[in-house]
Amino acid sequence: MFKKVLVVEDFDVINSGIKMALEGLNIKEVDYISYCDEAFLKIKKAFLNGEPYQLIISDLSFENDGTPQELKSGDELIEKIRKEFSDLKIIVFSVEDKSYRIQSLYKKLKIQGYVWKSRNGLKDLKKAIHFISTSDEFYISPDLNSAIHPKKAIEITDTDIFLMECLSKGLLQEAISKKLKEKEISPSSISAIEKRLKTLKIHFNANNPAHLVAIAKDFGLI
Fold first, then answer.
1. Integer Cα distance of 188 and 180 in angstroms
2. Cβ neighbours of residue 207 under 8 Å, at least 6 residues apart?
3. In 140-182, which ranges are continuous DSSP H helix?
4. How far apart are CA 161 and CA 157, in angstroms?
5. Fewer Cβ atoms within 10 Å of its own Cβ: the N or the C terminal residue of the chain?
6. How many CB atoms lie within 10 A of CB 80?
7. DSSP annotation string for 35-98
8. Predicted TM-score (pTM) of this structure
9. Averaged in consecutive runs of 10 residues, what is the pLDDT profile of the chain (222 residues)?
């Protein structure tokens, strides 16, 4: 079991619930931080002092209370952690249930667990901590399992992100096709682009390309 854990959460009531959930897990030290910038500095300081954290539990969304912050979201915090502490285990504890958001955290930022803040969220959090303390496999709340199941959810690839970035710049499909060919990305035909964009619009529940771009920007994909 982990001996030193940092919880990054800005709501006191949630922290109280997490504290209750962690009681009895034989974790010697649990610290609580409400700001992402302070969390990263605390992680770095602990590492430099030779007393590193073994697990980070972080939310994704943080309210802006006027305090200047370089890292404004859990996603940004996790990305920065991964650049300097690639082996540090991370569990996300969030109300977010969008599959593409979870996929990004799982596949790109290599988190170890994703727990949904639902009715059974605190119970799932305890299960997740137990699970990843003894396993290298990924833990996800049962209700969100379809988010990483290849038969039930599409994977958002780097090419998908590139397509949406091109759309955000106002490029037409002909121009996008040309850029894909220049990058030697296949398939690059206009029909393939049209088909993939249709799939992305359905997946994101977007009404049109502009709406798709707006959704992608909202979730930090582009």
1. 6
2. 201
3. 158-168, 173-182
4. 7
5. N
6. 18
7. -HHHHHHHHHHHHHTT---SEEEE-S-----S---S--SHHHHHHHHHHH-TT-EEEEEES---
8. 0.69
9. 94 88 87 96 96 96 88 94 95 89 88 92 93 91 71 72 94 94 92 92 86 83 82
